[in-house]
Amino acid sequence: GEDIETSILVCMNILELGCDEIWVKAQSGIHERILSRLGDVRVVLPEAQYGEHVAQMVHNPLIQDYLSVGEGHYIAQLRVPEALVGKTVEEISLDDALAGVAVRRDRELLPFNTLELELTTSDTLILHGPREALRRFSDQF
Questions:
Q1: Of 36, 29, 27, the residue nearest 5 (C-alpha)
Q2: Using one digit for the tens of pLDDT, what is the confidence trace for 42-68?
Q3: How far is CA 133 from CA 6, 7, 115, 138, in A?
Q4: Average pLDDT, whole number, for the chain?
Q5: Which pLDDT band holds residue 1 (cuts at 50, 70, 90)?
Q6: Are 88 and 116 in contact (CB under 8 A)?
């Protein structure tokens, strides 16, 4: 992935050999566009993608991690805000666009539909929904 010219030539040669699936690391957006135009090539930009991932978590301190599931929807792990400690899952006001998935407590995943479950400071909420709804939820705290 470090030598752009070499990665393009190697990718072209592998395609000519008839390989069904090629994964290649790109160094930049331009490199990505060139590789993508060669054919059936899966191009990754790990530094840029991980940088974006970290920036989202820095921007929202409650978010511990998240996963894009496509079409603008995410599954996010959020630290339980102090305002929700001691409340039950039933007492949490979720936006209609959000769905509670689970509560992580220590090494255990507890179903979100356990309505009487009381949240603690060490719990993690696992929610599903569009980025805007997740942001609205976390911005309350």
A1: 27
A2: 999 898 888 888 888 888 888 899 999
A3: 44, 40, 21, 9
A4: 91
A5: low
A6: yes
